[in-house]
Amino acid sequence: MISGRGSKWGKSLIATSICAYLTKRGFKVFPLNILSITDNDVYRTVEGKNIDRATMIMALASDNTPHISMNPIMMTFNVNDGKYTVKYRGDELDNADFNKIFKDEIDNLNKNYDYCILETCANEYEFGWYEIDLLNIMCAKELNVLKLEVSEFPFGKRGTHFIFSISDNCSSLDFDFGFDFHESFLDASKFVSKNPNLPIDVAVLATPYMSSLIDIAPLSIENDVSIRVIRDKREFSDPDLLIIPGSTNTCKDMVYVRKFGLDNIVREYSKHGLIVGICGGYQLLGKKLIDPDHVESDVGEQEAIGLLNVDTIFEKNAVFNRASGKTIPLGFEIDGCENHFGVSYNKEKYKDFVHISIENEKEISKDEGAYNDSFNVFGTYLHRCFETPYFREYILNRIREKKSLKKNTSKHYDEYLKEQIEKLSNEFDKNIERTILWEKL
Fold first, then answer.
1. Hey, how many other C-beta atoms are within 10 angstroms of the C-beta on 294?
2. In angstroms, how far is the first alpha carbon of the chain from the final one?
3. Strand partners for 50
4. What separation in angstroms does the CA of 123 have from each of 132, 162, 170?
5. In CATH, which superfamily holds the domain spanning 200-404?
6. What is the pTM assigned to this prediction?
7. pLDDT per residue over 127-162, tens digit each?
């Protein structure tokens, strides 16, 4: 059990390291984060459920397919009402009986594993919720776990020092890696932009209700791409690629975009630039936003940016899917996940962008997304569409060709993550024998 008195104390880093360490030695390891607290930094599993992204990294480190059983309870912050929503295995709970859920999950643990690596969430010292800390205490008591507390994680210094507390003993461990390693690897939504002098300038339009930057993280692993966030006209300049990311409230974001003249800037840029809209960004690029039941705002209907001939009608029920298929005009494989309110209707015949053939592990056949006549504005509901290499490679090589740069081959984002896990694991291996943790494992 890896615990700590805060959400940024390096628990996930240590948990991932231990998963990889034991897995490389032939043990079957099950990562478990019974309760996570997140602000949309999530991963969609193959069965179409959300888990904390750090849990997904732990699953990769232990050669497991990420699954909802690895993170059954999730609390997510809703920026629209300022409240937390509790979900158990993907279904919303009004009154969560943590005690019963905990016991059920422990009873159902797969007995075929040699180790369970249990990462706790932040406790009451950070959030003031006694029930959360109680859950951590229950884990330690009921399971008689080996409890490892990470009690120091000084950000901002090259080389990271951890102090472990195991029972009544203390030990320390040093990792020699950069701060940016943690930021871009375990916390992808807060990745650090690279050197602004790199040749490809990617701009991300940040709106007040922007859901997350995690969809853009795969672009940060390209060695010639710089990513910046723009919030107003003064920051826009003339990027090589404009990305409009997802939104937790597209209708209110459109009011913001119009108020500050960003819609005019985007329309002008579209005459020569390259634009990708993801989920809410796709909706913003359409013609109309229609909200008859006032799901997102008091405005029943409003004009959107208008670069795609698409109308979006907002509905009370949200769509949650893990999906894969092919880009229709290009024939490239693409996968990702849908997480949105609203249905978008493409009024242009033969201008659908993606044909989805697999949804939540089931075969289906449906088209989604759109592109314009000039083939330089694309919209899709698929979050994480840049993780598969083909679409990312196509977009960036169009830019490279235009700027007379050498074309590159992109790698799958999972491949990059596994490389980072290997680096982390190697560093952990070099240091663990100097700690009491090695004797306990």
1. 12
2. 12
3. 44
4. 6, 19, 21
5. Class I glutamine amidotransferase (GATase) domain (3.40.50.880)
6. 0.82
7. 444 445 566 667 667 777 777 777 654 444 444 555
